[in-house]
Amino acid sequence: MDKFVVKGGRRLEGEVTISGAKNAAVAILPAVILSDEPCVVENVPYISDVRICIHILEEMGAQVEKIGKDAYRIDPTTISKYCVPYEYARKMRASYYFLGALLGKFNKARVSMPGGCPLGDRPIDQHLKAFTALGAEYTLSQGMVDLVADKLTGNQIFFDVVTVGATMNAMLAAVKAEGLTIIENAAKEPHIVDLANFLNSMGANIMGAGTDVIKIRGVEHLHGTTYAVIPDQIEAGTFMVAVAATKGDVLIKNVIPKHLESITKKLEKIGVNIEQFDDSIRVWVDGPLVKTNVKTAPHPGFPTDMQSQIATLLCLAQGTSIITENIWEQRFRYVDELRRMGADITVNGKVALIEGTGKLMGAPVKACDLRAGAALIIAGLAASGVTEIEDIYHIERGYDCMEGKLRALGADIEKVSVPDKTEETKSDSTKAAV
Ligand code: EPZ
């Protein structure tokens, strides 16, 4: 198993380039299945979730060729299997996007339920609501979801909760369904818009992505395309917080400032300076960090995927901050690890009270999920002394060479291999990603 060893106290300075968006790529790669011709997908982050997606496509019979640092040419016309077995689904939660893509193309799909997750309950009732509204029938048995439809017909889908995954899956299943589909109470994240743009570049007819009403007119045929995934809003936000935590000064390149608005506004309230350019932002700190309150919400609200990172920054601010987590019921599990570093945080249900102490101390800690791991790296960068972070496979599922990017900014962070301590230590092939 690998761990990160971080020696704190170094300011981050210089320039960093953000990779493609994980949460867009893990939907766009399965969406290639819907095409009747090969597609090229560019600006794909080199992360383990993407590698698992590629492996699933190859296992199904697609031809996949890596044609550059971050580009893949995928020919889905040779696909002959319509199943994603548990051994893959347990590695990557987003494997449920293969349900929508396979159903949309072949009127059938068999994908393992993704299984447990560090964030708490992860139901798929809204995904199933969308599929059945379009005419599919499902059965759940032995942990597998089986979908079948004689034909898919457009319909109205009103989601009971705002859900990224079900909005994505509804689009994937509806693009070739006969007639008009209207998705209401849709999620509006940037990766929703990116999937819609990708599908439209293949000849789909999707309008309204990015608003809470998405209209899809089914089409017979989807042709090949060449498409570049948008920059990762959460990776950019994570680096913004890392720069603030080390009182650094960094130009963050390959971003879409509009996607970062809620993060930018919150960081400015904390005392961080931010200057926006067309596709980059400069982040620097030249004064004290002050307390603020954060409530996570669906886009364009403050992203839940930035909650653990901003909490770490607020530990370094003066005063008492309040964080309210409105999306996931168990997204404060990183708090115990931050407490080991001297953080003063009290959690009560979905609210965390943070007494800013202005400092953190290095300690051995463990990543419990992708974003919690990123938060612990930020804590280590800002802490006095050495922080060793275990279970970094969580982090490597969603961040493309984070330690290399941080080192280039002056951080003292190394990836160190250590022998497995016990046989029950789980490898990255047995824990679900988030
Ligand atoms: C996506 O998860 C992201 N993952 C998550 O990012 C992110 O936290 C989440 O959206 C919210 O933005 C990917 O895109 C791969 P949801 P998803 O469906 O789609 C409830 C990361 O760190 N719900 O928007 O699974 C659900 O319980 C990860 O990159 C239902 O009730 O999230 C939750 O409370 C972590 N029924 C809320 O909706 C359903 O059928 C939002 O979930 C589906 C969801």
Can you give a write-up of this model?
The chain is α/β, with parallel strands linked by helices. The chain has two domains: 2-19 and 231-421, UDP-n-acetylglucosamine1-carboxyvinyl-transferase, Chain, CATH 3.65.10.10; 22-228, Enolpyruvate transferase domain (UDP-n-acetylglucosamine1-carboxyvinyl-transferase, Chain, Alpha-beta prism). 30% of the residues lie in helices and 25% in strands. It is built from 14 helices and 24 strands. The chain has helices at residues 22-31, 48-60, 86-89, 97-106, 125-133, 164-174, 190-201, 233-245, 261-270, 307-315, 335-340, 370-382, 393-396, 402-408, and strands spanning 2-7, 13-17, 39-42, 63-66, 72-75, 83-84, 108-112, 137-141, 144-148, 156-158, 180-184, 205-207, 213-217, 226-228, 249-253, 273-276, 280-284, 293-295, 318-324, 344-348, 351-357, 364-366, 386-390, 412-417. The strands form six sheets. The chain has a four-stranded mixed beta sheet. It has a four-stranded mixed beta sheet with strand order 2-15-17-16. Strands 4-5-3-14 form a four-stranded mixed beta sheet, with helices on one face. A hairpin with a 5-residue loop joins β4 and β5 (72-75). α1 (22-31) runs parallel beside α2, α8 runs parallel beside α12 (370-382) and α10 (307-315) packs parallel to α12. The two termini are 20 Å apart. 53% of the residues are buried. Ligand EPZ binds at residues 22-23, 26, 93-94, 121-127, 161, 163-166, 187, 304-305, 327-328, 370-371, 398, 434.
